[in-house]
Design brief:
Elements (H helix, E strand, L loop, with lengths): L9 E4 L1 H5 L9 H14 L3 E6 L12 H7 L7 E5 L3 H9 L4 E7 L2 H8 L3 H17 L4 E6 L12 H14 L3 E6 L6 H11 L8 E5 L6 H10 L4 E4 L19 H9 L9 H14 L7 H5 L2
Parallel strand pairs: 1-2, 1-8, 2-3, 3-4, 4-5, 5-6, 6-7, 7-8
Pathway: Metabolic intermediate metabolism; (S)-3-hydroxy-3-methylglutaryl-CoA degradation; acetoacetate from (S)-3-hydroxy-3-methylglutaryl-CoA: step 1/1
Organism: Brumicola pallidula DSM 14239 = ACAM 615
Catalytic activity: (3S)-3-hydroxy-3-methylglutaryl-CoA = acetoacetate + acetyl-CoA
């Protein structure tokens, strides 16, 4: 399998959105701007920079409009935001957001807890966003939550993940990110899920998004890239989790992913030494432990 590994992998840095939204400490707009600019300089080409949702539900994202206005825009890099409805999309467009994301869940219970509607209803809500984005030539990325398990339902049927993923693809999403929201996935489960998704979605339109709750994220990522997946979501210093999944620890740390890939001869375009320093800095600002093993081991 190792002779099938990609020569390059794109890492989508989700720390400024998916990471910060579940941290106890809220950063100022300027701190977020500085954070994103540092990540750009490190070498990330795709950064999830904000979320246009109600501050009532996700107060850490309240300054996303200020952040998107002020971040430095580097050539060849894309800065995206979560826009679950038309209001959010319109706000995102006002501040030059280059890509938007919508999210569905493979679990009915999680969908109700997260968006107060069924999976089918959530998809119906996203359709106008995808349609309007197409008119504005804005790429739309689709997230699927709870692909390996749900905090309320337990195991999730693979067919449900495939159905939601294909629905988002058909809606116009150029890429589907499979999210192990509570981090219960293991390599064999990952293999089975991705092989099923590949029956209806090309490998170049699939990405993976693992949380490291049980320490399985890197093993799952290795499984994914052996199956032809070359886009990985990660969060510097392992920031974040999920506000609606009790006990879910942070995303897999970008430093750990980059370290593994570089030592396998896979290029990411990211300066690991600089990334480690960004992880240390943001952890100190948030008054939290660094969730990256590589970050902790480095001087």
């Amino acid at each position: 399998m190792f002779d099938l590994l990609p020569k390059t992998v794109d890492i989508v840095e989700v720390g400024p959105r998916d990471g910060l939204q579940n941290e106890k400490t809220s950063l100022s707009a300027q701190d977020k701007i500085d954070f994103i600019d540092q990540l750009s300089l490190v070498g990330f080409k795709r950064i999830e920079a904000g979320s246009f949702v109600s501050p009532k539900w996700v107060p850490q994202m309240a300054s996303s409009d200020q952040v998107m206005r002020a971040i430095k825009r580097f050539d060849g890099k894309r800065y995206s935001a979560l826009t679950p409805n038309l209001k959010g999309f319109d706000l995102a467009m006002q501040v030059n957001t280059q890509e938007v994301a919508i999210f569905g869940a493979a679990s009915e219970s999680f969908s109700q807890k997260n968006t107060n509607c069924s999976i089918k209803e959530s998809l119906e809500r996203f359709a106008p966003v995808a349609e309007k984005a197409k008119k504005h030539n804005i790429p739309v990325r689709g997230y699927v939550s709870c692909v390996m398990g749900c905090p309320y339902e337990g195991d999730i049927q693979i067919k449900d993940v495939v159905w939601v993923s294909k629905a988002l693809l058909d809606m116009g999403c150029y890429e589907i990110s499979l999210g192990d929201t509570i981090g219960v996935g293991t390599p064999l489960k990952t293999k089975a899920l991705i092989e099923a998704c590949l029956q209806v979605i090309p490998s170049n339109q699939l990405a993976v998004h693992f949380h490291d709750t049980y320490g399985q994220a890197l093993a799952n990522i290795l499984t994914a890239i052996q199956l032809g997946i070359s886009v990985i979501d990660s969060s510097v210093a392992g920031l974040g989790g999920c506000p609606y999944a009790k006990g879910a620890s942070g995303n897999v740390a970008s430093e750990d992913v980059v370290y593994m890939l570089h030592n396998m001869g896979i290029d990411t375009g990211i300066n690991l030494e600089q990334l480690i320093q960004v992880g240390k800095s943001i952890s100190a600002k948030l008054n939290r432990n660094n969730g990256s093993k590589v970050g902790e081991a480095a001087p």
